Amino acid sequence: MLDTQVSSSAEADTPADLADSEARRATGPLSPPRSPVRTRGGVWGARAEIALLVGPALLVFLAFVIFPIVMAAYYGFFSWAGYGVPTDFVGFRNYLTILQDPTFHDAVRHNAIIVVLSLVLQGPIAILLALLLNQKLRGQSIIRVLIFVPYVISEVVVGTGWSLMLQTNGAVNGLLEKLGLGSFTQDWLSNPDIAIWTLMTIITWKYIGFAVILFLAGLQGIPEELSEAAAIDGASYWQIQRSITLPLLGPTLRIWAFLSIIGALQLFDLVYIIWGQYVSSTAGTSTMATYLVTNGRNAGNYGFGNAVAVVLFLISLVVALIYQRYVLRRDTDGALTGKAGR
Amino acid sequence: MTASLQTVNIPGVRPRGPRSSSPPVRRGVGRPLGYAAAVIVIIAMLAPVAFIVIGGFRSNSEITTDPVGWPSVWNIGNYIDVLTGGIFWREVLNSTIAGVATTAGVVVLGLMASYVLARYRFRGRGALYAVFAAGLMFPMTVAITPLYILVKNLGLMNSLGGVILPQIAFALPTTIIILVPFLRAIPDEIQEAAFIDGCSRLGFFWRMVVPLAMPGVITVGILAFIASWNSYLLPLFILNNEATFTLPLGVQAFSSQYSVDTAKVLAFTSLSMIPALLFFAFFERRIVGGLTGAVKG
């Protein structure tokens, strides 16, 4: 899911901005060819080519992305079991139910905790690792590959493996006992005080490689001359990292944070696989997306599920727009942006 | 220490641009720490994977009495059972079909659309680009229920086609956003030369753009393939018949069916990791390059 969003940051983050950057680009040095020297068919030929080339992609995209999203907004106003045409119009009742449901409040709270903890846990660890690994080390490429392994393994495999290891008689508790730390053994998955931290550990393990790889790439975009100059002026290694590297890594950090926030808001697979549809709410790990699937599809209440989807989308959108407005904006205005390899 | 002296004293000897891979090393502080960090990270990353793989060689009684430990006898029976059972290969085949078809669809449709968006000038081009790019704001989670109903109405339930088409659609925004700058960077002179030589715009597309865009195409193709290989939510909704299960659904079904036979579940799980890991190891440079390229724009 993350990789889909990687590129959202590449160009811009909202349609408005895209149009913007598009307009700017059209006048830029890389604008499309001036006048084609010789073409067959003229204007109508060109239009036919455009239709032929864009048509299929646009059709598939409209049919399987835009249409379902629009339908979600529509179905959300009905009480509907998913068969036939929805007729039982209920107005905003689904939305009222959602907003008054304590289970949903819990899910939103869990999502918020996951968003914050993802940033707080993964960010510093990944920065530190990227700094430490951003030197000439023997076997650097193999290190990069190995860090990335958990990111490539599917969520289902990760979930299955970890849930086996974390059972009360599983490998984690077994390891603790072998190390003489038997008093630390826990019911990692169902103790509601601990389960969310268990989830955060798994999330960190799975996704930190992505952050490290992004940061490493960002670090390699920082001109060496700057730290060389600072070193000549007598700055220590850590002073250089703190005063030069980190600020210049800013754009990469902010993009990673954006992707991480959106990914955390839409977290589904890991929770659903490890905690299943019922346990997650009592263990304190349910998310908006698991609430959607549990109370929508699994309960046979498709209208309600769609209303949840709309709420989830609106929350993500608002967060994305706020972030775009107050955080990413700096990158479009900032003087450092150009140098930092963006 | 030597490295740091070199970089400080003779900066002009080796030409080093901002993309240079030789990183700043100062005063030797980092390097031992770097190795230490690398070792810790690799252990942390691989220990769970090792547990799964090694667990598949153990017996259930061993796992119950001592969950962490080496197998007393390396028992390949679990792996043999999975590999000769048929279920595993059927699911590998389904995942492969879905992955290859998704990748092919994304690459073909994405490349054609990106070509137009990058190199044709027409009214509404910006809007068209914005429509595709807006897709990034719509994760599949939000659209999943209507998508399920749409697929059902199209009669594609329990068929891989019902998974492939939405996956293509949802992968298009990323693909287009990565490919458009790529195609735009092809120098105009090449295009003009081709036109002077009597090449039509479509001919230019086939003869010049497709070969020149190959590196970008490979990156988006790999991203689409891995996303499809690992995808869970969509198959969970669309594929209810075991004969059409892809690997992720298969792993989950297998682990609930054989929940008492932990060793066998571990064997099945580790075998299902192998294809994605091999694929990744093979294309690592491309994937990492594609991700970082996408972020750096």
Automatic annotation (TrEMBL), chain A:
Gene3D superfamilies named in the record = MetI-like
SUPFAM superfamilies per record: MetI-like
- Tell me the membrane topology, using the record's own terms: Multi-pass membrane protein
Keywords recorded for this protein, A-Z? Cell membrane, Membrane, Transmembrane, Transmembrane helix, Transport
**Region span, Disordered:** 1-38
Q: Subcellular location, in the record's words?
A: Cell membrane
Does the UniProt entry include the keyword Manganese? no
Q: Does the keyword NADP apply?
A: no
Database matches in InterPro entries? MetI-like, MetI-like_sf, UgpAE/MalFG_permease
Q: Where are the transmembrane segments?
A: 50-77, 112-133, 145-165, 194-217, 255-275, 302-323
Mention any one GO cellular component term assigned to this protein in its UniProt record.
plasma membrane
Q: Polar residues: which segments have biased composition?
A: 1-11
> Which Pfam family, any one, appears in the UniProt record?
BPD_transp_1
- PROSITE patterns assigned to the protein according to its UniProt record, in alphabetical order: ABC_TM1
Q: Name the Gene Ontology biological process terms.
A: transmembrane transport
Ranges for domain ABC transmembrane type-1: 108-323
User: What family name appears in the similarity comment?
Assistant: Belongs to the binding-protein-dependent transport system permease family.
Q: What is this protein called?
A: Sugar ABC transporter permease
Q: Which organism is it from?
A: Labedella populi
TrEMBL record, chain B:
**Ranges of biased composition (kind: Low complexity):** 11-26
Please provide one cellular component term from the Gene Ontology annotations of this protein.
plasma membrane
InterPro entries for the chain: MetI-like, MetI-like_sf
Where does the protein end up?
A: Cell membrane
User: Gene3D superfamilies recorded for this chain?
Assistant: MetI-like (1.10.3720.10)
Q: Where is the ABC transmembrane type-1 domain?
A: 92-283
Q: Which CDD domains match?
A: TM_PBP2 (cd06261)
Report the family membership.
Belongs to the binding-protein-dependent transport system permease family.
The name of this protein is: Carbohydrate ABC transporter permease
Q: Which organism is it from?
A: Labedella populi
